[in-house]
Design goal:
This protein has one domain: Beta Barrel (Porin), CATH 2.40.160.10. The chain is 6% helix and 55% strand. Strand 11 and strand 12 form a beta hairpin. It is globular. 37% of the residues are buried.
Amino acid sequence: MRSRLFIALGVLASLPAVSIGQVRTGAERSELIVEAFVNVTAAAADQSAEPARRMDASSVATGFRALGRVTLGEGVDVGARINVSSRDSDVRLTEASVLLFGAGGRLEIGVRMGLPDVLTGYAPNNFTFTGAEFGPASGPSLDPAGGLQLAFLDSGTAAQLAPLTVLGFAAFLFDDISGKVLYVTPKASGFLGGISYAPQADDPRFGELVQLGLTHERYWSQNVLRWGGSYTFARGQQIDMQERYRDLHSVNLGVTATLDDSLMLGAAVTFNGDSGLQAMSPAQTTSSAWGATASINYNTGPWTFGAYYQVARAEGSLDVAGDDRLSALEAGLSYRFHTRMRLYGAWYYYDFTDEGGAGSTTGDANVALLGVRLTL
């Protein structure tokens, strides 16, 4: 198995970096920016949870983004943005929105995620505080809730772990892609705020969705301290006569310190309580959902090193006593050959207890990943 993995990774590392860079065209009062990326990742997973398995696999993620903007005068611009992404054979429109932005902030209407902080590029979201800077900057990533680590586990285990990986990284439904009206304030005295509203969340368990966020940044010398948080409210839906969900209230708080433009330390917590769960009789009880994550990343020249540790607890099946518990550790590094090609690798380990040990997927796993990112 290891020999096949290293052969596959060697092929990835030798891929040519044929790239055209970010394409910008435009006249004096208009601009068109086109960006694209390709991430190719190979992995070997050693999973002890039932069904115990060893596997080699690979995954290809691509993305395309185009932003057109026109200046109307008086510092006001209008624009349109489209974003298409794919993961292996699954192609999805992840954004189609119109924008109005200027000195008064930014207003966006369309299908998209909530709480952004950038108009172009693939910078980290301003409303998250921990992450894996050594991983892909967009598409499925090595962030705690990035999903790339789970792509190489069996689908049942991955589905159980996915909601737990959000806890301690962001507020729930941070990655919801649905029709939204969104407003981001201009930055003032270090504060940046955002609010988005969706009449219908992408998750069928919830309808009306409101997301709020506020962060503050303080700069001194080559250092930055950013703190703040976000809140998600989602209206519970009645799926059928037997299945109805409570309203969701999810809070995420965190802090990130960047020192000498090279060392990044982050910590965050998420708390949902017992909100957002399937409604039940008053005689039943549920456990609260919460999680915490701490991360460290260091950049020196073309190298980036990092790691994070995450713990999370949440109710699994309401029919079984106990809760799902996750402890996860990841460490990795990357090397930038130039601005358009990056080689990354990571080791991910998790220990998962299903419903207090009553479930069949209780166990742990090691996942070794190596990949290359091309920016086209």
